[in-house]
TrEMBL record:
Keywords tagged on the record: Amino-acid transport, Cell membrane, Membrane, Transmembrane, Transmembrane helix, Transport
Protein name in UniProt: Amino acid ABC transporter permease
Family: Belongs to the binding-protein-dependent transport system permease family.
Annotated membrane topology: Multi-pass membrane protein
PROSITE patterns xref list: ABC_TM1 (PS50928)
Lineage, opening ranks: Bacteria, Thermotogati, Deinococcota, Deinococci, Deinococcales
Subcellular location: Cell membrane
First-listed, main subcellular location of the protein, grouped into a coarse class: membrane
Pfam families documented for this protein: BPD_transp_1
Length: 223
């Protein structure tokens, strides 16, 4: 590769940048939406896995095992292309959000479950002896400590979601990667747009890592 070819590739990356930046909010929207929806679902799944009822534990364990043991891309295909055969048709945005949410919930549930279990049992027993109900103990004693412990893993899940949103491009959602592909279809120059997309993913992940470190410092000062 000579300098002229390299310059042409870099120029194509620069030319694609405005189009890719316009699609970046879609990528962030998918990631944040899946995280906001996945957190409460993951919390419920975590509670189900900690339940005294065997059937509830079994069902939640199967859900987590299936979602973590199959590729996210296959899950997207099942939801978007498979459900119509059962009479359930989703638009690309809804299908992508549902797939990302379910996948994220499975991973978040394990993070939340581990954080809850890491809170010393003696604190729960002390809360019970003081007359707190199980709900009050969970809300006032367990969850604040579990949130601090789970924060790094939760942040990593969000960063992973930002990158995983690229998979919804296969169902024609015009997010960051799909936008790069559309540019390539017009220009027939793949290197520049893909490089620009990679740099945007990197910047987004780096910014989220900075936010994660700031939050961790604030939580640690609050302990």
């Amino acid at each position: 590769m000579n300098s002229g070819q390299l310059q042409a590739m870099l120029e194509s990356a620069w030319a694609a940048l405005p189009t890719l930046l316009a699609a970046t909010p879609v990528t962030l929207g998918f990631a944040l939406g899946a995280m906001l929806l996945g957190l409460p679902l993951g919390f419920l799944v975590a509670l189900a896995r900690l339940s005294r009822f065997g059937a509830l534990r079994g069902l939640s364990s199967v859900f987590v095992s299936f979602m973590r043991g199959t590729p996210l891309l296959v899950q997207i295909f099942v939801i978007y292309y498979g459900l119509p055969s059962l009479g359930i048709t989703l638009n690309p945005v809804a299908g992508g959000v549902i797939a990302l949410t379910l996948n994220a919930a499975a991973y978040l549930s394990e993070t939340i479950r581990a954080a809850i279990l890491s809170v010393p049992r003696g604190q729960r027993e002390a809360a019970t002896s003081l007359g707190l109900s199980a709900g009050q103990t969970m809300r006032l004693i367990v969850l604040p400590q579990a949130a601090r412990l789970a924060l790094p893993s939760l942040s990593n899940t969000l960063i992973g979601l930002v990158k995983d949103t690229s998979l919804v491009s296969v169902i024609t959602v015009v997010e960051l990667l799909r936008s790069a592909q559309l540019v390539i279809a017009r220009t027939f120059e793949p290197f520049g747009p893909y490089l620009a997309a990679a740099l945007i993913y990197w910047v987004l992940s780096s910014l989220l890592e900075v936010v994660q470190r700031v939050l961790e410092r604030r939580f640690s000062r609050g302990t």
